[in-house]
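go over my protein:
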Amino acid sequence: MHGMIKSRAARPADKGSGKASRSRKSVRAPDTASAGATFRITPRIDRALTNLVKLTGKSKSYHTRRALERYVEDTYDYLVAVGSIRTSRKSYSSDEVRTRLGLSGKA
């Protein structure tokens, strides 16, 4: 995932709170504040998400956020790649490249 969203590990932590660290505490730098979102999901997806929560012990919000992050990054990467292909002048097949480089002959 090379897209727009930084991984959690790459985000700076807020070290100025002075509070004792807890294992499930959510700490954010000022520029990474969360924005809320509300949307509807199908009952089938809700059941699958509920089962995932039971298996992993993580919240629905966690799994939904991760899925959305991956979708946005993958879509962004795809669109960048498509844009790159569209702006390319000419593409060459591997046979054309071998011929141009004099590599088409047998050794």
The radius of gyration is 23 Å. Residues 41-88 form one domain. The chain has a mean pLDDT of 78. The CA atoms of residues 3 and 73 lie 5 Å apart.
